[in-house]
Amino acid sequence: MQVYSEADTRFRAEVRAFIAEALPAEMARKARSGVALNREDYFGWQRILAEQGWLTPTWPAEHGGCGWTPIQQHIFEVESHLAGAPRIIPFGIKMVGPVIIHFGNEAQKAAYLPGIREATTWWCQGFSEPGAGSDLASLRTRAERDGDHYVINGQKTWTTYAQYADMIFFLARTKPDAPRKQEGISFFVARMDTPGITVRPITTLDGGHEINETFFEDVRIPAENLIGEENKGWSYAKFLLSNERAGIARVGEVRELIRDLHDMTESQPVGNGSLLDDPAFLRRVTSAEIDALAHEVTTLRLLSREQESGRPNPLTSVLKIRGSEVLGRLAELQMEVEGPLAACFRPSPAGDPELPQALLRPALKTGRYLNYRKFGIFGGTTEIQKNILAKTVLDLKG
Amino acid sequence: MQVYSEADTRFRAEVRAFIAEALPAEMARKARSGVALNREDYFGWQRILAEQGWLTPTWPAEHGGCGWTPIQQHIFEVESHLAGAPRIIPFGIKMVGPVIIHFGNEAQKAAYLPGIREATTWWCQGFSEPGAGSDLASLRTRAERDGDHYVINGQKTWTTYAQYADMIFFLARTKPDAPRKQEGISFFVARMDTPGITVRPITTLDGGHEINETFFEDVRIPAENLIGEENKGWSYAKFLLSNERAGIARVGEVRELIRDLHDMTESQPVGNGSLLDDPAFLRRVTSAEIDALAHEVTTLRLLSREQESGRPNPLTSVLKIRGSEVLGRLAELQMEVEGPLAACFRPSPAGDPELPQALLRPALKTGRYLNYRKFGIFGGTTEIQKNILAKTVLDLKG
Amino acid sequence: MSILDYSEEQRMLKDSTRRLLESHCSFKQRCTHMTSPPGYSKAAWEQMVEVGITSLPFPEDCGGFGSPGVEVAAVMEEIGRATALEPYLASIVLGGSTIARGADAHHLQEFVPAIIAGSMHPALALYEPDHRYALKPMGTKAQAREEGWILNGAKTMVLGGDSATHFLIPAKATDTTLLCLVPASTHGVRVQGYQTVGDLGAADIILEDVPLSPSQVICSGDRAEDAVEYAFDVGVSALCAEAVGTMERLLELTRDYLDTRKQFGVAIGSFQALQHQAVDLLVELEQCRSLSQLAARAVSEQATGRRTAMCSAAKAYISRSARVFAQQAIQLHGGIALTDEYEGSHLARRLTLQSYALGDEDFHLQRYARQPALSGNNAWWD
Amino acid sequence: MSILDYSEEQRMLKDSTRRLLESHCSFKQRCTHMTSPPGYSKAAWEQMVEVGITSLPFPEDCGGFGSPGVEVAAVMEEIGRATALEPYLASIVLGGSTIARGADAHHLQEFVPAIIAGSMHPALALYEPDHRYALKPMGTKAQAREEGWILNGAKTMVLGGDSATHFLIPAKATDTTLLCLVPASTHGVRVQGYQTVGDLGAADIILEDVPLSPSQVICSGDRAEDAVEYAFDVGVSALCAEAVGTMERLLELTRDYLDTRKQFGVAIGSFQALQHQAVDLLVELEQCRSLSQLAARAVSEQATGRRTAMCSAAKAYISRSARVFAQQAIQLHGGIALTDEYEGSHLARRLTLQSYALGDEDFHLQRYARQPALSGNNAWWD
Fold it and tell me: In the A/B pair of chains, how many CB contacts fall below 8 A?
């Protein structure tokens, strides 16, 4: 049945063959087991991709891009997940990289792009603040010019993987008296080891440590760390966030979970049979599988429409909404496969040797179920996506 | 298991015995078949109740009330439904009757109460207008004083059973320049045969005829048809609508549908067995039954709390929301029992002799499923109920 | 061309179908057609024949266009938008595909041109009383006689059966299944027509000692079962596309109503809770559109398993979604959508029909689950 | 007294339990207790003994209060509000009720006072690996020996098993079921404790040639099965009440957060879509409250069928509702509810535990459906 074009089908075969060859078995085993990955796990795989020239597929050719279409990026993401490759951390490659390419000066390009392209510099994102999440423009971190430096004061939150980061890009207010709150914001980068930057880990409800609070106390950064023009940061941020929407559908993860769900159900012993013999459970598995199918096809449809028109499609919000729903439901079902053991929990995913062997998998699944609650919240909540669709697609007035 | 008090348990036995004795078998058969009932079907049963002194249980004793508690009214409603009695049309007994008792003058009481109490006068309600449904206060029907008459002009809609009605009670604007739209509204009654009143039937999506549009064109009614004081109609209407909330939970209907659903599922042949052997269907039936149980117990809890405190409870909106959901779901399940025949339809519930015998029941069920869509809309939409709960119970600001 | 979307040509076909239906089957017109026999517009039907869309699903060597999938879907979306009453699904898609798949060359030449010409209306009689959505004949039996057979049994909810010229009757013989073509006028065939909740006509059929000549058996055994399963999948795919069209139109009406209707001095479409509910409809529509497109492509598949899996996946999803969509759209409107004179209530009823016709959610979930599972890292369509 | 509500006395019991927990198990305190053995506050436990709530479910003739239903529910709601960690459900309700129902007079006098005094912690070992939520022992076997038995097998997800002094082990003998009381320190009993998603402790138990004297068999046969089923129902009822308390508290936090948190210059609680979602939680809470009250009353029933039906009805509903409630409450909060330091995330996790502990939705739907159906016009509780 033809869904991919022939070129894309060939591309998939090429990606599959490369990953099968290049992905170390131990790396895949660890990623698929569900335990938390560290900096070296992520960077190890990124360097392999960098060598192949596949790490920064959407960048312009002169900066190391390889010209993949949106469908090809999608295929790469799905194949990577199915093979158990560590996911690509987006902050350098998909977020700050394109901003520097578009709005940075030559010195900044020379300083920062190689580290991203070669997977040696880990970036983190300093956008959200305790009082500025969905309403990002109300951020309060200040940057005051002092000679050839800026002095930064403020607090960022939900800083994903700040604990691994070498660099941070962030928004700060350079003109506090601007008439509109979107004005007077600037876009900066800073070394994480700059004096005055401290990171406080946030333990999440699954017991994991992915996110942090980042504090800026009289942090002096050189004026050349300003990207683009002063007070224009909001437009760069919008540019950045529109790029973020590419992987929004999370089809790779969905496919991985679906592939495993069926097998797990079939291999879960219940008395003399398996859980697949339970019609009520089978019905839920089937229904979730069809939801996932609908979501994948919708993703392909919208990506290929974007690819054709060259314009971002506001319907993409549908992918964010459904992606988080489908993933949440699959994680829930995988947890329910475990029956009573679904109630177990390992507060520290790094490994607790005390947990009986049979409970390791259930504990990881329950942790993931809890962790996946984030998908409806981060990167624009479901409610924000619905506001966008109501306004842009349905043309309803606020 | 004690849920009703002993007195209420005795009351239930008394009600059950009376209905078993007094309800004509043919009347019950017709009501339970699901075909549309006519004026005489409803009034026939109401007269039997009137004779027993049970038609106006909530009225003051001097006007023919019998002092039932909310729980007892609830028990009566449930038992009536289970026995297949025609439902009590509320417009006279629960709506305009109490308004006349509280706010009418002696002449009005003498003129109107006997007809309600003895089930000889059919009342209908003229509140909603094409532009004033949930936002009732924006009604536009005008009443202009002209000597000892008022002249009414305007249009009412969703007038339930106007086709059977002898009298209408309605709201009209008597002071169009009042500063707030809730002010300057008055409460009137009128004979339906007054010149200038015309009724246009509205066929509903189930093909039935329950509701109508009612037009007032230069309708002259005597000034004594004003109930209470001029321009105070809004407060009478609010009083009336708070009384309307009593039967809001529709537990009688829920119990009737649940009782039948299980039997229907068991007696629906599928191959060599019955539909009850289908685990997926059984699961839905069981789940709906438990929803219905939760709804009934919630109703009893809230009624008995009201009974104890003597104050209306804003949580009652929960009963309206869940009652319509549960009923809608039960009607849907009963329809689904029929399998492919659920797709059949009889546009005129009055009876179409052409429909094959085996399709009569499915057609009625599909019609009822469609008809029941109204429960989330009439009498305060689900959205309005949620607004109320957010404001009154959760104390969230609009 | 964009993946899983209509091509330029298919879009033109869709547009011309829309124009045809707008001029012959506007909401007002169809309400008139509905109430007088045959329950649809003969003029519209003749137009459909004229523009050639009746030939779409048939093989090219007997005058067809050879496109039972995406082209039929394009037409069906428009039929769904217009809630058109003409027996395209019944005669062309279901009846036509059964013959196209099951008949031998001789029968093909005899019947297909008449079907394409719109003069022969074959209705596929799938269901039997008390056997729910089962696709195999259970109680309808063919008894061999000297020359041919005698048919006895009953069929129910035969789409288009009220105006059919012929019935395609799967029947059980001693050790095989026969697929029989029975003219509606045959002695012993009793037809009781009625209206479905989606305003389309249907019928119950009673067969009492209906004589059958050998030439009336289109095919038998595996081939008969395959023809029915094939036509069923083609019909399911077409019905899914119809549902997408109906949802699309109902969402447009809902949106417009929210934008127009005022309450408390503002358009009700400015209330966030209603906006989000409307967005939920949009999200559902996009899922249904995707699965419908996938099913339409699967219909042309040679591999029966994938074809059936994709068609049942789409219908399982759409069976639930169509019904819930209708419920929510009515709720978003309020009272107006409860009235028969409003176009939206007919769309809502049509969605109810689409939910239950050709198998409900449970039936298709089970049918999907019986197909071979996804293997390894393959995509669903591999 | 209002139907299906707490009486004045029960309300006083509830209030005093709340005060006890507020002073000993505030959110901050419990987070400390959680991380050091035995995983709860001994001081709080002693207070519970002191005020007498540990006696509630036991028969009066051995020092109990004779109220396994509504009084226990009143206490459990407060435990749920506080997400308290003390093994009240495990030792008193589940373990205690098993003994109270199954033991003879001699055993009752021996054990019940020690349980009420808080020194004996019996944990009921319900589940076995690979047998999901089945209540009957499958793989745990008692082999007769000269004097007594030898136990072999494994139990999993034993609530309170990490800090239990005794285990109640249902085991399969040749032609009967035994209910055995095994001290945790017995040779051959291996206990692996861990934390559940609701922060309560639990354990896996391996039994390897565990010697059993005749006096360690509490009861056998039907009586053993009845004791387990009874204790299970009492536990289910108590857990439902716990869930109601947890939901109630989480709704309060959610409401307060909506009222406080500002976005775009206004409290997010002014957004209608969020208001309606919060109301959905309220509506769910009221349904759960009703079913929990009903189950609590059913627990004192003599008629086993009604008791089991009402308890399984409540747990089937609450199993789904608790989980969905947690999901929606988190979503309404946004990021803050994803952090471990926020009380709401512990409440959400506790709801996840309540969803799966003592049988999930499917298990209880099926258990409910196996009870005698409603007959005629009777109410569920007739």
Answer: 6
Q: Which residue of A has its CA nearest to D344?
A: A205
Write down which residue in A67, A88, A109 finishes a domain: A88
Do both A227 and A261 map to the same domain?
no
Instruction: Name the band, by pLDDT with cuts 50, 70 and 90, for residue D2.
Output: low
pLDDT of amino acid C1: 47
Closest Cα partner for C161 from C90, C80, C79, C86?
C90
The whole-angstrom distance between C269's CA and the closest CA on chain D is: 12
Residue A79 lies in a domain: yes
Structural class in CATH, domain D223-378: mainly alpha
**Cis peptide leading into residue C38 (ω within 30°):** yes
Contact A318 C282 (CB under 8 A): yes
One domain, residues A367 and A256: yes
This prediction's pTM: 0.96
| CB–CB contact B296 D380 (8 Å) | yes
Q: Does D94 touch chain A (CB under 8 A)?
A: no
Least CB–CB distance from D330: residue in A207, A339, A373: A373
- pLDDT digit string, tens, across residues A282-337: 999 999 999 999 999 999 999 998 888 888 889 999 999 999 999 999 999 999 99
Identify residue A88 by its one-letter amino acid code.
Answer: I
Q: Which residues pair with A124 in a beta bridge?
A: A168
How many other C-beta atoms are found inside a 10 Å radius of the C-beta of residue D184?
18
Peptide bond into B195 cis (omega under 30): no
Domain borders along chain C are 8-120, 124-220, 223-378
* Number of structural domains in chain B: 3
CATH C-level class of D8-120: mainly alpha
Measured between beta carbons, which residues in chain C are less than 8 angstroms from residue B207?
340
Q: Residue B2 — φ and ψ, nearest 5°?
A: -85, 115
Q: Which domain holds residue A20?
A: 6-88
Give the tokens for residue A166.
């070498």
- D271 CB within 8 Å of a chain A CB: yes
- Closest CA–CA distance from residue D349 to any residue of chain B (Å): 23
- State residue D1's pLDDT score: 47
Q: Work out the end-to-end distance of chain A between its first and last CA atoms, rounded to an integer number of angstroms.
A: 43
Closest-CA distance, C268 to chain A, in angstroms, reads: 10
Whether ipTM exceeds 0.85: yes
Q: Which of B72, B88, B104 finishes a domain?
A: B88
Residues in chain C: 382
pLDDT band at D264 (very low <50, low <70, confident <90, very high): confident
Phi, psi angle pair for B119, to nearest 5° = 55, 50
pLDDT at D319 over 70: yes
Catalytic annotation, pick one of B244, B266, B289, B336: B244
- Closest Cα of chain C to B306: distance in Å? 30
Q: Which pLDDT score, from 0 to 100, does residue A3 have?
A: 87
In this structure, are A143 and A221 located in the same domain?
A: yes
Residue B245: per-residue pLDDT = 65
- CB proximity under 8 Å: C 318-347 to B: 323, 327, 330-331, 334-335, 337-341, 345-346
Q: Is residue A200 part of a domain?
A: yes
Chain D, nearest residue to A348 by Cα: D195
Indicate whether B157 and B220 sit together in one domain: yes
User: Which other chains touch chain A, taking contact as 3+ CB pairs less than 8 Å apart?
Assistant: B, C, D
D residues 19-38 closer than 8 Å to A (CB): none
| Residue B168 sits in the same domain as residue B76 | no
Q: Are residues B216 and B256 in the same domain?
A: no
DSSP label at residue B174: S
Chain A neighbours among D 148-207 (CB < 8 Å)? 156-157, 192-198, 202, 204
- Mean residue pLDDT of chain A comes to 93
Give the start-end residues of each E strand in chain B.
123-126, 142-146, 149-156, 167-173, 185-191, 197-202, 211-222, 226-227, 269-270, 273-274, 344-345
CATH number belonging to the domain at D124-220, selected among 3.20.20.150, 2.40.50.100, 3.20.20.30, 2.40.110.10: 2.40.110.10
Query: Which band of pLDDT confidence, cut at 50, 70 and 90, is reported for residue D197?
Result: very high
Is B244 tagged catalytic?
yes
Neighbouring CB atoms inside 10 A of D141's CB total 17
Task: Identify whether B169 is part of a domain.
Answer: yes
Residues A253 and A225 in one domain: no
D194, A369: Cβ pair inside 8 Å?
no
